[in-house]
Structure formats: C-alpha cells, structure tokens
Amino acid sequence: MRGEIFGITIVFKMRGGRYYWSLDRKKRRTLWMCMALCLCMGCGPVGIALGIFEASKKQSSSTVDTPPGVIEGAVTGGGSADSTPIEITYKLVDKESSPVSITVEWKDDLKGITDWQKCAEGAGSDGTINLSSSPSGVSHKFIWDYTQDYPLSTVPSSTSVQIRITPSNNVPVIIKNIRVGNTAPVVQVFLSGTQSGNIVVNYLITDAENDTAEIEAEFYGPDPSDTTPDGSTPKGWWKATTSGGNGNAGPDPNMRNGISASSTGIAQNYIWDSVIDGAGRTSMSGYKFRIRARDFSWANWGSWGETQNTFTVDNGNSLNTLPTAEIVAIGEAVKNQKLKIIYRLKDNESDTCSIRIEWSNNGGVSYIPCQDAQNSGSSGNYIANGDGTTSLSSSPSGNLHSIVWDLPQEQFLQGNQWITLRILPRDSYGENPVEDLNKKNFFLHHWSFPVNVSNTTGFSGTPRLAVDNTGKVHLVW
User: Fold this and answer.
1) CA–CA dist 96, 350 (Å, integer)
2) Taking a C-beta distance cutoff of 8 angstroms, is the pair 391, 345 a contact?
C-alpha cells in the first residue's frame, strides 16, 4: 500500500482500487500532527500512511453515492370509472441530487389481486426514468390510468387498492386504501295508504363507497282528470315537486342534493308537494312514486327505486273544483201542469253529482225547494221524463239533464207572477253556492196555453229542443 498527498486530498492505492479522502481544515491539522509524530518516532512511509488512515477514517465523508429515497407519497383524483385517472404525487430525495428511476405497481389483496402489477402510465405523468432529485426532495407525479389495469368489468369499484413506489436501489413506499371505480347509489322507496298535501316519502339510500348523493323524484298519476301545473294530464310519470326533506334543494324542483349515503344504507325522506303537482284532485288510488340517485361528484344515475305497492292521493279539499249547473231551457210555465227544466251539469273532475232545485217569488230573498215529479227517466228518455236529483253524471264540457217540477203540488205558489228558479249542484266535496248561470227568472201563468201540434209526417232526423224569444220550448227536427 502506498499513499500520495495532493494538496488536501489523500489517495491510497491498494489492491482492487484507489480510495480518496477529502480533508477539511480541522482534519488537515490532525494529519500534520500525526505526520510530525511519526517522523519524530522514526516511522517510515508505511507508518505515516497508517497514521493518516486512522486519523481520518472516522472524520471523513465518502463520495460513494447513497441510495435515493421517496418521501411524502400521496394520491389525489380517481373514484370513478368515468373520472380522470388517479394522480400519485411524491418527492424524490437523494443526497447527491442524482437522477433517479422508479417503478410504480399496484395490488388489491381484499379483491383477490395479491401480486404486485405494473401501473399503466397516463397522459401528463412525469415518467419513471431519470427523474430529478435533491437532498430536500423534488416533487413529481405519476398518472395511473387504472382503467387499463383494474378489472372494472368484474369488480366495478374498490377502496382497498395499494400503490407501491420503488426508487432504484432503495426501500419502496406503499400507499394504502386507494379508491378506484364507482357504483351508483341504490334507493328503496316506502309509501302506502291514503296521502294528501305535503307527502313524506321515506326511502333508504345505499352506496358502496359512502358517497354523498343527489336524488330526483317522480310520481305516476293514474287519473287523467288530474292536471299538472303545465296544464297537462299526469297519466304517466311526472316530476314530483319537493317542498322539503333531507338534504338541500337541487337545481330542478324535483331534485335534492347533499344526501348522505353509506354501504349499509341510511334512512332519508323526501317531501312531495302533491297539491302543487295537481295530484289527487279527486280521491284516486293507483299512484306510484320513484326516486333515483347518483354520486354527488359524478354523473352516473342509478336505477329507479319504486314503491312496491300503489297508494291513494286525496287532495279533493284542496284541489277539487265544485260543479256548476247552467239552466238551458224552461218549458211552458203554467201553474196547473208540470214544468220541465233542462240544464247542463259541468265538473272539471267529472264527479258524480246531485242537485238542489229551489224557487222564489220574492226576487230571491228566500227560496223554497221544488217538488220533484219523481218520474225518473231511467226507463225512458231522461230529457223528456227527467232524471231526478241524485247520481247525476258530469263532465268538464257539461252533460245535459232535466228535472220535472211538479207545479200543481206547490200549495204556496200561485200563478200570474214572476218566479226565480235556481239549481245548486254538489259533488262529494261540497255544494257550489255561486248563482250565475244556475239561476233564471220566468213568468208563471195561472192558465194553460193551447197546444198546437204540427203534422210530422215526412220529417226525419234527430229531434232537439229549442226555446223561442217568448220562452216557449219547441221540438225541432
């Protein structure tokens, strides 16, 4: 072994290579002291070299590369098969700031994928070869396009993926519990019985990844007489306007967001304003309700959760419109004979109706019920014979009916006076007190007029009733 001194660097040539020691000021002082001592003691070059070696070996710093390391590994992004790939951020540390290469791998023990597999690199990644480093660490990112690696077709989501980053010649860093993929929330809806007004719809929402969700709701209206705010009939699925419930109001009237969900399910409720949606204008069974949900951060809707059974909505007290009666014609008004009155019965909900028919001879100050002739037209022509005062059909456009007033039975009614006649219709929700088309004034004679009958031979067609300007009713072909 032979030592050579070049300024402040000591070079030892030994079998198998050459070794260097770089000495600072303190070490140089120590070196000269050792050399002086060796000379004073008569030591040769070998002794001087050994003294130098012993004096400097604990205080020198080797220039051989130290292995690089990885610190502060973290994951952002991911969470859905439709989302951007997963971004893995980390720092590369190396005392000599040498270029570093890494390998990035993944596995998922809980899903049965126990072997480390190489991660497919996505666009925007820093790569894996010749990456910069420094003693304090240089930040890098690796973009993992997990859709190329993870078996999403058989395992649509997982929260137990592990990522391993291994720098060349050093210990790997493992990041655990990474999420990949996504499953949409599942909703179960519970509603039955008879409902009205603001209806509380209970539902259970389940999400495998415990995501916050948003929901939208719809109702099925079986009654074509119901009308929605846009004026259309709701026989089919329609948006169910919300008036409250869990979460916050969403961008549409039938949506709510910020709904908590979990893998075991969380009970929530949705308050449906069935009045504003025009449901149950009359008590009607056969309604259905459904809700679907999606992860609050993603755009994939889950399947509809629908009520297993139908239910009844009865908003008649809030939505029902009372029927109206319009007097169309009055026959020859004579005290000693029965009087036929023809009227049209209208109702928006086509409810079955009944009527009260009354008369007044004091200008409507007080009214007395009319005596019904009780000759129902069920066995004949209901227009000609009358069809009573109960179980009367109606429609939005109006159904014609008639009643025969038994004038001879009215003991408090005399002839040769003006009479006010009114008809008050009602359905199961109430009676319409408004007097408009349902009231008519006419003159009641005390004697009968002669009846003229024309020869109808040769006439054909459907007969109809008509009233002339004197109030007489004519049968016209």
Assistant:
1) 91
2) no
Nearest one of 193, 190, 195 to 205, comparing CA atoms: 190
pLDDT digits (tens, 9 = 90+) for 59-105: 433 334 566 666 655 665 554 444 568 888 898 988 889 899 999 99
Q: For the chain, give every domain's residue range.
A: 2-56, 69-181, 186-319, 324-476
For 39, residues 6+ apart whose C-beta sits below 8 A from its C-beta are 48
Q: What CATH class is the domain 69-181? A: mainly beta
As a whole number of angstroms, the distance between CA 254 and CA 228 comes to 14
Contact (Cβ atoms closer than 8 angstroms) between residue 292 and residue 304: yes
Enclosing H/E stretch for 93:
strand 86-93
Q: Which residues fall within 8 angstroms of residue 280, CB to CB, at 6 or more apart?
A: 195, 196, 223, 226, 274, 287, 312, 313, 314, 315, 316, 319
Q: What is the side-by-side strand order in the sheet with 186-190?
A: 186-190, 198-206, 266-273, 242-245
* Contact (Cβ atoms closer than 8 angstroms) between residue 29 and residue 59: no
User: Domain 186-319 has what CATH class?
Assistant: mainly beta
Rounded to the nearest angstrom, the gap between the alpha carbon of residue 424 and the centroid of all alpha carbons in its chain is 46
Q: Which residues contact 40 (CB under 8 A, 6 or more apart)?
A: none
Helix locations, 122-226, DSSP H: none
Q: d(Cα 271, Cα 124) in Å, to the nearest integer?
A: 46
Instruction: Tell me the per-residue pLDDT of 211-248, one tens digit each, with 9 for 90 and over.
Output: 899 999 999 988 666 656 555 666 789 999 999 999 99
Query: Considering all CA atoms of the chain, what is the largest pairwise distance in Å, rounded to the nearest integer?
Result: 171
Question: For 138-174, what is each residue's pLDDT tens digit?
Answer: 999 999 998 889 988 888 888 889 999 998 878 888 8
Closest by CA position to 180, among listed 281, 110, 280 = 110
- Euclidean distance between CA atoms 460 and 258, whole angstroms: 73
69-181 and 186-319 agree in CATH topology: yes
Q: Please report, as a single letter, which amino acid is at residue 73.
A: G
Residue type, position 469, single letter: N
Output the CATH code of domain 324-476: 2.60.40.10
Which residues neighbour 411 within 8 Å (Cβ) at sequence distance 6 or greater?
none
Identify the DSSP state of 25. Answer: H
Mind spelling out the 3-state secondary structure of 300-319?
CECCCEECCCCEEECCHHHH
Residue 290 CA to chain centroid, in angstroms? 10
* All residues at 6 or more sequence positions from 369 whose CB lies less than 8 Å from its CB, including other chains: 356, 357, 358
Q: How far apart are CA 27 and CA 30, in angstroms?
A: 5
